[in-house]
Input
Amino acid sequence: MSTKKNIAILGSGNIGLSLAKGLVKAGFYEPEQIILTRRNTAALSAQADSGYQITSKNLEAVKGADIVVLAVLPQQLNRLLHEIKPAIWEQQHLLISVVSGVSCQDIRQQLELDVQVVRAMPNTAIAIGQSMTCIATDSATTENMELVKSLFDTVGVTIQINEELMTSATALCACGIAFFLRSIRAASQGGTEIGFHAHDALKMAAQTAKGAADLLLQLASHPEQEIDKVTSPKGCTIAGLNEMEHNGFSSAMIKGIKTSAEKAAVLYDKEN
Output
């Protein structure tokens, strides 16, 4: 069990709700130890029925918690920080921010408090407990970093990185979900073109992608090692790979990730 009493998740959308469910499923918290906030509390009626604390008042939620998860959009963050500032205690609270493009220092500057802040960047696979979550800090204690890692380990895999890489992590892991989904979609469309029904082609493409990922993760292998195993001289696999490369497959993915990272870096306006 966590040594912290309550956790408040401010902005209980998909990411926040998935984290809450993961914490309860793993036995870290009971539902009544988790405070969920949302402007429209009616949208959290199912969570209320399950025993979670529900409120639209972020300030009250922070007063009742030791860990505070900031899970709003970048353009909503400054207003939220202004709202909760009177309730933040430097010696009591640990803030966990899942807000893209906002540094730990940005948050402390807005609050004008020397509070510990940890950034976390999960992705939407958190909904099924398969998130790739990157965490980083500039001042939090080792104990609190281990605590945050244990929280997000309940909903996937967690690694600690340097804070200056968090915007890059947003592009590779958070935006990356969409990139890999688009590649699966393209593969399924190719399958339909060569004769499969659309639903069969999608299932075949998705499972093939899952198998490819598991090969790398379970065997600690490199993509080219696994590619070599399926490419033979004058074969159909190398012919298909070369055609994709001639049309910019790898370079398009690389450029897309770089573009997303550049965009993620400017999502937050410190002045508003």
About this structure: The domain at 176-264 is CATH 1.10.3730.10 (ProC C-terminal domain-like fold).
